[in-house]
Design a protein that fits this description.
The protein is α+β, with helices and mostly antiparallel strands. Among the domains are: about 80 residues, SH3 Domains (SH3 type barrels, Roll); about 100 residues, Immunoglobulin-like (Sandwich), CATH 2.60.40. The protein has a five-stranded antiparallel sheet, with no helix packed on it. Strands 10, 11, 13, 14 and 15 form a five-stranded antiparallel sheet that branches. A hairpin with a 2-residue loop joins β8 and β9.
């Protein structure tokens, strides 16, 4: 009976002891943290909090203004009307006629002059048989302007049409042309110029111009007069001997040339007068022209 009573008590005590051991095993162990790490952790946390707070405060305090972007008034650009580009047509290249220089019997050269008349200054001679290019002509076709193929136009000269033979092209292929005369500043043009008409004949008068014997080449009259119902170009070179020129200056003599000018043209006649020396032509003087009477 005593053994039966003690056995349940022993079991109860064993169960209680087991429970206590179990609870003591599950309970967390209590540790006391060292004072140093706790203080440092708090300081680090506070610094981190301060830094973050400072950065946030700076971001909040910066004023942010949202300025609306102005919109430009859009103006419609007028569209240009399409233009048609005209393609230039190919212009044929003009090829100057080519001529062979002829010469009178018994000569080997033909004279070439500064203008379409033997009254102009002589420029140079062209040997018989050479080839030249025709770059122009006078209106009547009685004179042509020729030059060598590589020469500049300023080196061209006038030769009578009867002294050339066309090898290519024709006279009509050459344009009507005028070449400026060589200019001289050494002397003055004639003075006291006057005219007198008797019927269809006009006389031109002027006082002679003194020149040195070496320079003196006379005078040149270029007249556009009416003959045969149309206006024609009439160049007149007038040269007296140097001795005669000196005598006329001493005696205050007057030089005169005559030219035919008929009525019947739609344009008025006119003329101009130069002094001529070996280097070229002075400024010209316009001749006061008397009108023709029917």
């Amino acid at each position: 009976m005593t053994a039966l009573i003690k056995s349940p008590l022993r079991h109860r005590m064993a169960a209680l002891l087991f429970i206590l051991l179990f609870l003591s095993a599950c309970a967390p162990a209590a540790t006391t943290p060292p004072p140093g790490p706790v203080v440092k952790t708090v300081e680090v946390t506070q610094v981190a909090t301060h830094v973050v707070t400072s950065e946030v405060t700076q971001l909040v305090e910066v004023p942010v203004t949202n300025t609306p972007t102005p919109t430009l008034d859009q103006t419609a650009t007028p569209s240009l009307s399409p233009t048609r580009t005209k393609i230039p047509s190919a212009t044929p290249t003009w090829s100057p006629p080519r001529v062979e220089i002829l010469a009178a019997a018994g000569t080997e050269k033909s004279a070439c002059w500064y203008g379409p008349s033997t009254g102009y200054l002589y420029k140079y001679g062209l040997p018989k048989g050479v080839w030249m290019r025709v770059i122009g002509r006078n209106e009547s076709g009685s004179w042509v302007v020729v030059k060598a193929g590589d020469d500049p136009d300023s080196n061209a000269c006038w030769i009578q049409a009867t002294l050339v033979k066309f090898l290519s092209g024709e006279m009509k292929d050459a344009p009507v042309l005028w070449i400026a005369l060589p200019y001289s500043v050494l002397y003055q043009p004639p003075q006291a110029v006057s005219t007198n008409r008797v019927g269809n004949e006009v006389s031109i008068f002027w006082q002679p111009v003194w020149m040195t014997e070496d320079d003196y080449r006379g005078y040149m009259v270029e007249a556009w007069v009416c003959q045969g119902g149309k206006q024609v170009f009439e160049p007149i070179g007038y040269v007296t001997s140097y001795t005669d020129n000196q005598v006329m200056i001493q005696d205050k003599g007057i030089i005169a040339v005559k030219v035919v000018d008929e009525p019947g043209c739609d344009v008025p006649s006119r003329a101009r007068l130069y002094s001529v020396e070996k280097h070229g032509y002075t400024n010209y003087i316009m001749v006061p022209w008397p009108a023709a009477t029917p």
